[in-house]
Write a structure and sequence with these properties.
The chain has 872 residues and is α/β, with parallel strands linked by helices. Helix content is 54%, strand content 17%. The structure holds ligand C2E and magnesium ion (MG) (2 copies).
């Protein structure tokens, strides 16, 4: 019995040890031959010496070449049939002939099999020693018996068994030297097999001797017996192989059911394929889903593979650890390309004659390999490469390729299944439009974070402002694009360990885990997000500037998921109503909510029975060329009985969201018109502007009401300006445009307030029947900030557009005198702002119109100074 180990560890000392042992065995063999090399054969058969020599050599050659192969783990246990000629040679040949036949026969086989020189040296010296030892011992112990009787047979058997035992010990020692200690059970198994094989082959050899002694009939029977055994063995091998692959296919199919990811599936199945086919490594290249997996598409043939096919590469080697990487399909690799383009399988055996395959193996550092395409009916989904057949004496053959193809078919289907499962799991937890997580994913993640982290976590809810308007005015596809832009900006702005989700509509959420956030830090991050979000973006010829209100809640392990989400929601709502970008939750906000409700009740009561609490202040607008006051803007103040004077920001948003604004606006209009009548009576021809909310515009009766109010107050329509915000028009143009046209038809002036903020689309301006645009104060104030160039460019283009459309251009929020000249040079016509005058009560106002009348622009500063002193 010879045992060859699969892979030399290659360490220098191990090689040296092998060579030393080989030399010792070789010397031992030579020594034995010198002592008894020419002793006569124990049994005399009437066959000439040369015939015995040739026959034995042939039998050794055959015996070593035809192997009975049993493998487990890394070891290839190769049982040779050499036991038969060994027994025959010992009984029938002169020791020298016997050893020479063993040496020559085995050497030829080792050379054919390209076995490494170290192993050739060891094997040949061991074989020589084994043969020399057996021959010598048999000669000495048994001598030259007349017949092959039971006692003699037992003697031969014992000699052979002892020799085999010794050789097995040596081989196990060699394996130990090269591959480390062997498991005891493995060693015992090897011994048991050795003994069995030795008994079998010795018995067979003795039967042969006994039969040959019988003459011609015996020889014929030997031949028949040998052929019969060979056929039986062959059948057995085929059957056991088929059984093995069937068992594996079965295990394969059952094992792959329900794998939740391609990676886990790949790890299991690749390893099984690798072990079944005794390959050192397996590499699976899976093409990225071209068709998205779920849609029914015509079968993509390989030629339809995109030029740059991205792939997922799973590889596994003997350490059974899965390596995963992404890469692009290497088209310069001709073998892979061939498998991909022709969808056929290739086996490159160790002794392949094909120069191309030889090169390929060399380039990839493989001894042998099989490459198979992964096909789910008609569709190529990947390529599987199996490389380096374990065991020195075997290589991949056509039969292995067939097994591999069968397994690969199952692998392809299993992978498709796993991909579908993965996709379903993804779809269930992600938003289809933006690819962000969805609400269910977010809540689970938040629960996980709260359960596992000691640090605090920030939960942010983000709601886009006036998103509905974008959808209505510009169409859903623009709305969708805007949501994608927002998703993208959030993803870039946030650290990678954060979770970003779209909760639905225009509502987004962010989780920032594992960072020690205080409320201040949480607010800062939210401010950063806001800043990243509100840059203008061009979509379908419209310039949209997304704006959002962000509510932040900070929690830790003691908080509950639902509480945190509710707190963030409260904060977000507070941000919406207060107009702040970011609000961090505090318990006062809950109280604030209650206060807000109380405030609304108070407002309702004031409108019912104490309208005098709602007072108008007026802020003048001056002509930038003449310096004359051309009009005033009415801005409401609420003299609340207990809270004091409230600015519009404190109650207008709430009034707008509850519908109370529908009662407030008529009140403001009525009062403003009454005041206007008083100025007219005193001979001051100035217009009065009133702010109109979106909700007022959706009231179809508005034009009729205003006509009535104008008539009642006795004010000509051209004295009244209605300030509307762009978003209130854009929101529902079908309904508001006719209303606006009717209003314009009354002869009053429509002014577009806060222009430039929100979803400004300059081209949209042409469609509106407006007479005036008011550039938002953020741009005017931007002129004196670091970013003045941008503001300047924006004001210039708005003014240019205004000039084209014959609109009056008003600049809001002028706080410095220098701005007046600059705004005029940029093309603005009218200015309004604290520098000219703060909003003033009616009584203070009556003083200034006469003082302010002046035509000289250079004196404007003096005049406005006068206004400011007079207003106190
Ligand atoms: P708005 O229509 O843009 O009014 C201009 C706001 O800017 C006023 O704030 C005004 O006091 C302020 N402002 C004027 N000049 C300057 C300046 O130089 N610097 C700065 N920083 N601010 C200046 P106010 O009075 O607090 O009003 C805020 C908003 O409330 C108004 O913005 C308007 O949208 C709304 N509002 C006021 N009164 C009414 C009303 O009667 N009805 C409705 N629907 N909304 C109103
Ligand atoms: Mg206004
Ligand atoms: Mg404004």
């Amino acid at each position: 019995v010879a045992v060859t180990h699969a892979r030399p560890a290659g360490s220098l000392t191990a090689v040296h040890k092998s060579l030393l042992i080989s030399a010792a065995l070789g010397l031992g063999a030579v020594g034995l031959l010198i002592l008894r090399g020419d002793a006569a054969a124990p049994l005399a058969l009437h066959v000439p010496g040369p015939a015995i020599a040739i026959g034995l050599t042939a039998l050794f050659l055959l015996g070593d070449y035809v192997l009975l192969n049993v493998e487990f783990r890394r070891q290839a246990y190769t049982f040779t049939l050499a036991g038969v000629p060994l027994a025959l040679g010992m009984m029938l040949a002169v020791p020298l002939t016997f050893v020479a036949a063993r040496l020559i026969g085995s050497a030829i086989v080792l050379v054919i099999q390209r076995v490494a020189p170290v192993k050739v040296a060891y094997n040949l010296s061991a074989y020589m020693f084994e043969a020399a030892l057996a021959a010598t011992t048999a000669g000495i112990l048994i001598g030259h018996p007349e017949h092959l009787g039971p006692l003699v047979a037992a003697g031969f058997g014992v000699v052979l068994l002892a020799g085999d035992f010794l050789m097995t010990c040596l081989v196990l020692g060699m394996i130990r030297i090269h591959n480390g200690p062997l498991k005891r059970s493995d060693a015992i198994e090897v011994f048991v097999q050795t003994v069995c094989l030795c008994i079998a082959s010795t018995s067979f050899a003795m039967v042969v001797v006994l039969l040959i002694k019988q003459g011609v009939l015996g020889v014929v029977l030997v031949v028949i017996l040998t052929v019969g055994l060979a056929v039986a063995y062959h059948a057995y091998i085929g059957m056991s192989r088929r059984h093995k692959s069937l068992a594996l296919v079965h295990e394969f199919v059952t094992g792959s059911v329900g794998a939740e990811s391609v990676e886990t599936l790949g790890e299991q199945l690749l390893n099984r394929i690798r072990t079944l086919l005794n390959a050192a490594s397996a590499e699976l290249v899976i093409f990225d889903d071209v068709d998205g997996g779920s849609q029914q598409k015509p079968p993509a043939s390989s030629s339809a593979l995109p030029a740059e096919t991205t792939t997922l590469v799973l590889s596994i080697a003997e350490d059974e650890k899965l390596q995963v990487r992404r890469s692009v399909l290497d088209r310069s690799d001709w073998l892979t390309s061939r498998v991909v383009s022709q969808e056929d399988s290739i086996v490159a055996g160790r002794n392949t004659k094909d120069p191309g395959l030889r090169r390929w193996l060399e380039d990839h550092g493989h001894r042998d390999a099989m490459i198979v395409p992964l096909l789910i009916p008609n569709q190529l989904t990947g390529v599987l490469t199996l490389a380096d057949r374990l065991g020195d004496t075997r290589t991949f053959v056509a039969e292995d390729l067939t097994t591999l193809q069968t397994l690969t078919g199952h692998l392809a289907i299993a992978i498709r299944g796993a991909r579908l499962v993965q996709r379903l799991a993804y779809d269930a937890t992600h938003d289809a439009l933006t690819g962000l997580a969805n609400r269910s994913f977010l809540t689970h993640r938040l629960r996980d974070i709260l359960a596992t982290t000691g640090d605090s976590v920030a939960v942010m809810l983000l709601d886009l402002d006036a998103f509905k308007e974008v959808n209505d005015a510009l169409g859903h596809h623009v709305g969708d694009q805007l949501l994608q832009v927002v998703a993208e900006r959030l993803t870039t702005a946030l650290p990678s360990d954060s979770t970003i989700a779209r909760l639905g509509g225009d509502e987004f959420a962010v989780l920032l885990p594992n960072i020690a956030y205080g409320p201040a830090a949480g607010g800062q991050v939210a401010e950063q997000i806001w800043t990243a979000l509100v840059r203008p973006v061009h979509l379908d010829e419209a310039v949209l500037t997304p704006d959002a209100s962000i509510g932040v809640a900070i929690g830790s392990a003691t908080d509950r998921t639902a509480d945190l989400l509710r707190q963030a929601d409260t904060a977000m709502y507070a941000a919406k109503t207060s107009g702040d970008n970011v609000v961090v939750y505090s318990p006062e906000l809950d109280r604030g909510r209650a206060e807000r409700l109380a405030l609304l009740a108070d407002l309702r009561a004031a409108l019912d029975s104490a309208p005098e609490q709602l007072v108008l202040h007026y802020q003048p607008k001056i002509d930038l060329v003449s310096g004359e006051v051309t009009g005033v803007e009415a801005l409401v103040r609420w003299h609340h009985p207990t809270l004091g004077i409230l600015a519009p920001g404190a109650f207008i948003p709430a009034a707008e969201s509850t519908g109370l604004i529908e009662r407030l606006t008529p009140h403001v209009i009525q009062q403003a018109l009454a005041d206007c009548r008083r100025w007219l009576d005193r001979g001051h021809d100035i217009s009065v502007a009133v702010n109109i909310s979106a909700r007022n515009l959706s009231d179809r009766e508005l034009p009729v009401r205003i006509r009535g109010a104008l008539a009642r107050a006795g004010v000509p329509a051209e004295q009244l300006v209605l300030e509307i915000t762009e978003s209130s028009v854009v929101g529902d143009p079908e309904q508001t445009l006719p209303t606006l046209r009717q209003l314009a038809g009354l002869g009053l002036c429509l002014s577009l307030d806060d222009f430039g903020t929100g979803y400004s689309s300059l081209s949209y301006l042409q469609r509106l029947p407006v007479h005036e645009v008011k550039i938002d104060r953020s741009f005017v104030q931007g002129l004196s900030s670091g970013d003045s160039e941008n503001s300047r460019a924006l004001i210039r283009s708005i003014a240019g557009l205004g000039a084209n459309l014959c609109l009056r251009v008003v600049a809001e929020g002028v706080e410095h005198v220098e701005l007046l000249t600059e705004l005029r040079d940029l093309g603005c016509h009218v200015a309004q702002g604290y520098y000219i005058s703060r909003p003033l009560p009616m009584d203070n106002l009556t003083v200034w119109p006469s003082n302010l009348r002046t035509n000289a622009f250079p004196r404007l500063q003096l005049v406005t100074d006068a206004v400011r002193t007079s207003s106190g």
